[in-house]
Amino acid sequence: MRARIVAQFVALACAWGSSFLFIKVALEGLTPAQVVWGRLVLGALALCTVMAVTRSRIPREPRLWLRLALVSVLLCVVPFLLFSWAEKQLTSGMASILNATTPLLTLAVSTVALAGERLTRRRTAGLLTGFAGVLVLIGPAGLSGGGHLKAQLACLGATTCYGFAFVQLRRHITPLGLPAVSVAFVQVTIGALMMLAATPWLASPAPRVDPGIAVSMLALGALSTGLAYLWNNNIVQAWGAVNAAAVTYLTPVVGVTAGVVLLGERLTWNQPIGAVLVIAGIMAAHGTLGSVRRRRAAGPADSGEAARPLEEGAAR
Questions:
Q1: CA–CA separation, 225 vs 5, rounded Å?
Q2: pTM for the whole thing?
Q3: Tens digits of per-residue pLDDT, 34-66?
Q4: How far apart, in whole angstroms, are the C-alpha atoms of residue 131 and residue 137?
Q5: What is the C-alpha to C-alpha distance for residues 175 and 183, in angstroms, rounded to an integer?
Q6: Largest CA distance in the chain
């Protein structure tokens, strides 16, 4: 059992970390919107297969579908479009590093929107460290108005959308106790239906699909957007949500390595330094794995782990 969960953790880090590589390759023949269309449609089909195999129940409550429609816009449609557009200018490695700000921005949004979230001294230090890392990532050229500032801000806009989506999930969806696979299926399917409805406006220019683009889109949809949700759910059930969120530390490593090795991307001096500061901020704000285990030993009521969902690592 432990070996299976470890294998799924590694697979999850690879799937989410390499998703930015898949986007970069797909953009060679598709527009950003066409990439998102394929990603969500293939992801919905993959999750439909998982639902059928596991015989999971599809929620039927109209109010729940309306809430999940908002989550789908914030967790899938808008951030996927922003990342795809940004990667027309940014390297896949840079996009993966900026994606690692998701836990920081989720914490910032939660502190404002959720009454139970308090901005402690440790969290404040973590946020300040993490956002200092963001400034380093943007670099002198971006801060002075040059570089690819708009694309970098688009990535940060995407991770901010994740933060708002996670607040919606925690406030309205998590208390219902629904299986994560069912929730993921509904939100990805709603996003796919939105993109399908927009097909007439996305058909031009005509997409160019070669074997590399086809494989990248299949991996992006079926693995990074579909099966990854199932793996994440299994890891959360086995290790707890906060421990499972440690995948956030690995995805930028995978993303940068894939970009350098497979696409020949070059690292600039500020990227590894900024990434280290962002990850240090996440660890300071959320606690190390050791501190999480100590809180879990104290019991769910004391640690708050029972109330914390899987969302903080669940969107790439």
A1: 19
A2: 0.84
A3: 999 999 999 999 999 999 998 888 988 999 999
A4: 10
A5: 12
A6: 58
